[in-house]
Design brief:
CATH class: Alpha Beta
Structural class: alpha/beta
InterPro entries: AB_hydrolase_3 (IPR013094), AB_hydrolase_fold (IPR029058), GDXG_lipolytic_enzyme (IPR050300)
Strand order of the largest sheet: 1-2-4-3-5-6-7-8
Organism: Calocera cornea HHB12733
Helix content: 25-40%
Number of helices: 14
Protein name: Alpha/beta-hydrolase
Radius of gyration: 22 Å
Strand content: 5-15%
GO molecular function: hydrolase activity
Keywords: Hydrolase
Length: about 475
C-alpha cells in the first residue's frame, strides 16, 4: 500500500543531477563559443557597429527577396509581414549578443510625470504588489525558493480598465461579491436574479513574455496589446493587471532571480487580487510565450498546493513556452520545420540555452512545473515525469500555425485533453509565435483577441474550432 504521506510526483526536488548540470553547462558554453555575448568594449562596439550599419542593405534585400508571394515563407503573408518577421529576428539577435536586451527596473516607482503619461496615453495606473513570505508558500515551491535563496519581493504592476484598486472600489467589490453569492443561492433555489450574464465582474492577471530575460509589464511594451485590448473588447472584464515580475540572468552575466522568483511574484499578484475582493472564479490567468509558461506554473500551484485551480475563472495561454528542455527538438520537429516562418532565434543562436540556464538555476528544465510538455522518454531515471492536469480550470490555448514551438503546444493540448480539462484549442492560421505582440500581425491579432474575449465572456466556441 502506498504511504499516504509520500509526496505527489511534482513534489520531488527536481534539482539538477550532476550529469544534467554538466550537459546543460556544456550546451551553453558550446553555443556561446559559436554565438558569443559581447559584454565589454571594444569587442561590443566592434561587433555591434558593423551589424547596425548592415541593416539598410539587409532591409533592401529582405524587400526584394519577398516581392513575390511565392518567394515569401508563407505566400498568404503581405510583404510588410514577411519583411518584419526577418527584422524581429535580426533585432532580437542584435540586442541579445550586444548584451542590451531591455530590462525594466522592478524596484523603482514611476515619477509623477510618468504616472500622468500612463493615465493620459493608456488609461493605466501603477501599483505596488507586496511580496509573499516564502514561509507561507506551500511545498514544493517553498523548498525550491529556499534552495535558490530566493525571497518574495515587492514588485510593480500596471492596471488598465476600471480603478478596482482604489479603497472605495475595493469595498464595493467585496459587497458585489457578497451580492453575487446571494444571487447564485437564489438562482439555485429556482428564483430569478435578473442579473445579466454579461455583468462586468472579472479581472485579468497578465504575465508577459520575453524568454524570462527581457520584456516588461508597462503598457508601452509590445506584449501589452493583450491586456489593453482585452479590457476594450470583453464584456465581462472590469480590469487587467500586468505584473512586472522579476527577470532572470545568468552566465556570462551575474546570476539573478532563478526559478521560482517569477512564480513567487505571480503568487503575490494572485493574492493581491484576492485581497482586493476578487474571488478565484473572477480571475482569468493569462500569459503569452514565457508568460504563458509562468501562467501554467501559477495555475499548477493553485491546483496542487492551494486546491483552488478548478474554481478559477479560466486560463488563457497565447503561444506558451511549455518545454524548456530539448525533448521536442529534432530534424522533423517544428523548431526546425517552422524556422523560416517564425522570428524566434532557435538553434542557430545561443539565446535559448542562455535563457534556460539563467531561469532554471539549480532546478531541472524537465521539471513539470517548468516544462509541462517535456517528454519523459529518454530522460535519466528519476529526472522527470510527465505533467498531469487533473482539476485544472477551463483553458483557451492559441498557438500560431507557423511557429517554431508549435509541437510542444500540441503535446500540452493532448495532455490537457487526456486529463479532462475543458479546453478550447485553436491554431491560428498563418501566425508565427506570439502574434499578439507583433504590430505587423493585423488584422489577425485583433480577430484573435476578440475570439479570446468571447471565451473570457463565457461563450462556447467549440463549434468554431472543430
Amino acid at each position: 500500500m502506498d504511504d499516504p504521506n509520500s509526496p505527489r510526483p511534482t513534489e520531488h526536488s527536481h534539482l539538477l543531477t550532476p550529469s544534467e548540470q554538466q550537459r546543460i553547462t556544456q550546451t551553453l558554453h558550446a553555443q556561446l563559443a559559436k554565438y558569443p555575448i559581447y559584454q565589454r568594449q571594444p569587442r561590443r562596439a566592434l561587433w555591434t557597429v558593423p551589424h547596425l550599419l548592415s541593416l539598410p542593405a539587409l532591409y533592401v534585400y529582405w524587400l526584394i527577396s519577398s516581392l513575390l508571394p511565392s518567394w515569401r515563407p508563407v505566400p498568404s503573408w503581405p510583404l510588410f509581414r514577411a519583411v518584419n518577421v526577418k527584422f524581429i529576428r535580426w533585432a532580437t539577435n542584435t540586442f541579445f549578443r550586444s548584451n542590451r536586451l531591455p530590462r525594466p527596473d522592478t524596484t523603482r516607482e514611476p515619477s509623477e510625470g510618468q504616472k500622468e503619461e500612463l493615465k493620459s496615453r493608456w488609461g493605466a495606473r501603477f501599483a505596488w504588489i507586496e511580496g509573499v513570505d516564502v514561509r507561507e508558500v506551500g511545498e514544493p515551491v517553498r523548498g525550491w525558493a529556499e534552495a535558490a535563496k530566493v525571497e518574495g519581493r515587492r514588485v510593480g504592476g500596471y492596471w488598465v480598465g476600471e480603478e478596482v484598486e482604489r479603497p472605495e472600489v475595493v469595498q464595493r467589490s467585496r459587497a458585489r461579491g457578497a451580492d453575487r453569492a446571494a444571487l447564485r443561492a437564489l438562482e439555485e433555489r429556482g428564483g430569478q436574479s435578473g442579473q445579466s450574464q454579461q455583468a462586468k465582474n472579472k479581472v485579468m492577471l497578465f504575465v508577459h513574455g520575453g524568454s524570462y530575460v527581457t520584456g516588461g509589464a508597462h503598457p508601452s511594451e509590445f506584449t501589452s496589446f493583450t491586456p489593453l485590448s482585452s479590457v476594450r473588447y470583453s464584456h465581462t472584464l472590469r480590469a487587467a493587471l500586468s505584473v512586472e515580475y522579476r527577470l532572470s540572468s545568468g552566465f556570462p552575466n551575474t546570476a539573478e532571480n532563478p526559478f521560482p522568483a517569477a512564480l513567487l511574484d505571480a503568487i503575490s499578484a494572485f493574492r493581491y487580487l484576492v485581497a482586493l475582493g476578487f474571488g478565484p472564479g473572477d480571475i482569468i490567468v493569462t500569459g503569452d510565450s514565457a508568460g504563458g509558461n509562468l501562467a501554467l506554473a501559477l495555475v499548477r500551484y493553485l491546483v496542487e498546493v492551494e486546491g483552488i485551480g478548478s474554481e478559477l475563472g479560466g486560463l488563457l495561454l497565447l503561444s506558451p513556452w511549455c518545454d524548456l528542455s530539448d525533448s521536442h527538438e529534432g530534424p522533423e520537429g517544428s523548431v526546425v520545420r517552422n524556422y523560416d516562418t517564425d522570428y524566434l532565434l532557435g538553434l542557430k543562436a545561443s539565446m535559448g540555452a542562455y535563457c534556460v540556464h539563467a531561469f532554471c538555476g539549480s532546478v531541472s528544465p524537465r521539471n513539470p512545473w517548468i516544462s509541462p510538455s517535456a517528454k519523459a522518454a529518454g530522460a535519466v531515471p528519476g529526472e522527470a515525469e510527465e505533467a498531469y492536469f487533473h482539476g485544472w480550470p477551463r483553458t483557451l490555448l492559441i498557438p500560431g500555425e507557423t511557429e517554431m514551438i508549435l509541437d510542444e503546444q500540441r503535446t500540452l493540448r493532448a495532455r490537457m485533453e487526456r486529463d479532462g480539462v475543458l479546453l478550447t484549442y485553436k491554431e491560428w492560421e498563418g501566425a508565427p509565435h506570439d502574434m499578439f505582440a507583433m504590430w505587423f500581425m493585423e488584422p489577425e491579432r485583433t480577430e484573435a483577441i476578440k475570439f479570446a474575449c468571447r471565451w473570457i465572456d463565457g461563450e462556447d466556441l467549440q463549434h468554431e474550432v472543430q
